[in-house]
Fold each of these.
Amino acid sequence: MNIHHSLSVAAFMLAAGSAAASSELTVYTYDSFISSWGPGPALQARFEAECECTLKFVGVEDGVALLNRLRLEGSNTQADVILGLDDSLISDARKHALVQAHSVDLTSIPFVAALAWSDDSFVPFDFGYFAFIYDQQKVTAPARSLAELIDGKARVIYQDPRTSTPGLGLLHWVRAVYGEEAPAAWTRLAAHTVTVTSGWSEAYNMFLQGEADYVLSYTTSPAYHIISDGTDRYRAAQFVEGHVAQIELAALSAHTDNPALANRFLSFLLSREAQEIIPVTNWMLPVRDDVKLPETFDQLIRPSRIGFGADEVGAYRAAWVREWRDAVSR
Amino acid sequence: MIAERFHLPTGILSPGLKLRVGMRFVPGALSLLIMLAVSVAALLALVMRSEAGMSLALLHEPWFWHVLRFSLWQALLSAVLSLMLALPVARALALDRALLGRTWFLRLCLLCFVMPSLVLVTGLVTLFGRLGWITPLLGDDWQLYGLAGILIAHVYLNAPFAIRVLSHRWQSIPVDAWKISAQLGLRGWQRFRLVEWPVLRTAVPGVFGFIFLLCFNSFAIVLALGGGPRATTLEVAIYQALKFDFNPPEALFLAGMQLIVAGGLFALFSRWGGLQWLVAARGGDVWHPQVGSLTRWSSRLLYALVAIFLLLPIVSLLPVAASASGAPPWSEIVRASLNSIGLAVGAALLALLLALAALSVWRHFGDGSRRRLIEAAAVHHLVIPGMVLSVGLYVLLMSRVNWLEWGWAAIVLLNALIALPFVFLQLKPSMFEYDAQYRQLLADLGLRGWRHWRWVLGPFLQPALRRVLAIAFVLALGDFAVFGIFGQSSWQTLPWMIHALAGSYRLDAAAAASLLLLALALGALWLLEREQERA
């Protein structure tokens, strides 16, 4: 018996000793999802307890980086599950055949009415509405519509749609409200835009430092300040035209070698248990309507949802970005 | 023939020696090969991904020309302003021994390289923003956002670098030159022109070119403080093309433009400089030229103001960090710090090896054009966007290398290449000086190889080596872009952690982690430079 042989026997015995724990599920996601303060650790503990498997997270910068990582890796990818693309990236993911159909029964899930989700490859695990946040100690009469904000004089900070997903969300939002009139609206907004940052955190930080009256973020942002900072001075402005949503999605990788376990993880993400963890760790809304949330979430605005379908957003994104770029650079 | 080319005395070359001369070029050739291969491979990988070839469509868009013009204009202004501020401060640092905290000031000067853009933006807003500490002094029309904000940020980031390099140059003015100038009664402008400028002239164009390129390539700061997309650089477009659209043809076109425009300008600037034979001031000589008291006091005032300017963004972190509502995740932060240190040490050492190997070839070429080719190989990474290098390399080796396992190696290599221009250009003058002083002596002694390095060259270069090691370490410590492609969160680095914290509302914890990052950089500088004093 040579040395390799005895090693493999030992390995086999070890594997047998730890029951069926040899199966491993690799989940590609974005970084903040799996940070110690994000939903990752809690979800991992719960899922590993019930699946008798090992969950391995691989985190990249954000949803867009995730898409590109998968595009680059193609069939070499080690991902079993892709967690954290948003609805604006669906068409790209499909175009490059990164995902495959899941076998989760979506009809049994009590989705929030605004979502009404049915898709054969993507399942939503949380969502949020884009919103402009203001400080109610400074802004006493907040804008009640996107038009009021754009035509007003209040100082606004938002994110660049070329580098950030909230920025892309605003692009979508302005298009949904103004249609072909969007360029003129952008030019009017540019007159009282303080600045446009490359990422969310620069913009939000500048707003907290008092540089602007409004910053583009999510309706859930005030919940963070109430729960973690103990202050309710930051509010989201509710607009009568309705708000555009960002839906965060999970899917099976087209190249997974363990579709059964991957499907099981998707079902787990939609369970009440997981849906109760996600909102207070990822600061987004649950996709089920039967989830118990801290009372703080009751104070958040509940806007109506508007916007285009994922395919249209995918098809027009480049044109919208160019339109925005030309309108605000003038 | 070999002897002519390599400045060796003719007649002593036996066949065996020829082989040894040849062997000596192996490390240098290897190093040059690595430098060029990575860039060529990365660009080729993107070309292979561009079915339609390079996209030239942007040439017809007025937007593109506007962006190019703006990129150039702000980079030019930033470089001019940075130098204008750096020159008097560097002079004071070199000549006025009574300045308080000189050593710490010079260390502070390097911290800018690790300053996360979020920290800098926050700091500048604290000073110059709507409710800024300095804003009331600036009049009612003051507006941070726009060209003013961009220039302030770029001066903040780059003037300190210029100060460091130039003050070292100033210090290298030979004591004898000062003494003679004093005997001749040279003062003020005359002395500057005849004694100081000839020495500075060797560094100023290069530093100018460096700063110009760094500003040409900057974009997070330009966006945040530029007041909107009117103020955009080509780099944003590259970032968008590679990150959002994954459009290699467009990225290639933009990178090509960058290479031509920025690279061309850089080559132009560096040609104005040149090398000059200098006898370095060494060995505790304490002669200092007389400086008029008006000059002395005004430069001391300027020194103090610059110190405050550099410190304030860091100071403005303190109250934010102290207000942390939940305890920052220290165990994770410490782990991230260790990862950062490991990668940065690796990158700094590799950069040093590459530079030394390249210089070992460089010093044997007497003629300018071959030297310039080697210089171009070592410095061109400054002009190729890091994003292009990273994505290209990633794509190229993806099918052969498991990046989840080997990503760290790519991070070390690419960060070494990114730091290489700084390392190479700062080691070059020392190597030149060395050859000028000792070549003849060495030929007589017949010292070669390891013994030469151990007893002569190593000790001679040591101060410069420590200095460039510090720069390379600090640069790699602040890396964000390369890690974004090859890294993953199971062994994330500190800048990455700061980004993640700030991205999930935990700005206070991000401030605490940023302070730690700055402290690490400062600690490394202290370690390297303290040793230097002892040595």
Amino acid sequence: MSLFRSKGIGIAGVACAVPKNNVPVERFVQVFGEKAVNQFSATTGIKATYKALPEQTASDLAVAAAKELFAHLPVDKSEIGAMLLVTQSPDYRRPSSASIVQLRLGLPIDCSCMEINLGCSGFVYGLQTAMSMMMCSDYKYGLLLMGDTATKLVNPLDKSIVMMYGDAGVAILLERNEEAKSVSLLRSDGNRFRSIVLPAGGFRDMNPGHECFVCSDGIERSLYDIFMDGTTVFSFSISDVPDTITDYLRLTNTSVADYNAFVFHQANQFIIKQLIRKMKLPKEQVPLSLDRYGNTGGVSIPLTLCDAYGGQNGGKVKALASGFGIGLSWGVISLEFDKDIVFPIVETDDCYKKGKFIPGKY
Amino acid sequence: MLEKQKLALLEETLNVEEGSLNPDTVLRELEEYTSLTILSLIVMLDDEFGRRVTGAEVKSFKTVSDILALME
């Protein structure tokens, strides 16, 4: 049983950045027709997303979020002992983008840095990993960064997901806090790895052709496009996820009444409605951001926090968060924080131009 | 649950007229059998019968009888 109990590590700040490029779903009417676009919005609840520019990467978004965080909370960077970057959109095949982010944020050599390759479950896994590392050491601050640009990996004619994904980055500062406590329950099922997959470009099939073919859902894609078996993923989201939350409540001896916010991965509105119904959650305690930001993968939980509480004064939030998706991988974690350490979402078109390698120039 | 009751539940789930389905009804020919009502069907099979269907299973449904077989 992967139940983790953390003590003494609290959330000191959350900041989020999205690209400036806002894409309302109406823009797809010309491609898919009004009926299909309206039906998509009615089911998913998504009305617009933010898409990164071609030269803008996930690490750029994570760095923008971290800079926003440090603008609000000027910490001594020499006291940051670990920086974790959760992303599935790295700048290069290698090294991990954690190295680039370390450089750009001016983190010291004494700061341990690494990347975690997870998608929609990334916040829950990433937060647990960051807290666990801190509990084994004595540095003052830990930094959890996340970023993804899934919009770049979708076939432009894939009506099942092209309107769904949004890009975003987030930065979360962790600090020692004697009163802080958190419990997480993490799960994974490799049996269902095929249900969300981008087959090409890894080392199993490095350079296959780019031609499109018809997938099992009738939609044309190439091996370089994200494929999602929507039915299996939906079934997973409305069964394994509430089961895990139920197990979590039992194992922690808590109930729905012990939390005042339930923050779900913003997969789609229909799924979140089913979770509210199944778990008998108070609807007003389930914040939504997907209508304006779409499905931003693992970033979607902290993004929803910034959207719901950013710029608000005071008040304690005792949240239960659940991320679930690609892997399949999912988990539940509890977190407590004051609303005033959650900052409003910023927009950015910043990108690291020096990161581009020019043939013959290196 | 009697077959009549199962059909009524399925009609409600798929949002089709009462009494319009029979075991031989071909799903593909139903205008209401869309990606949206398929999601409702997945919810119903899970809620009412504890059946967790995969994408491949849903794809294999040809007629109403294929769904009735899971409503046990």
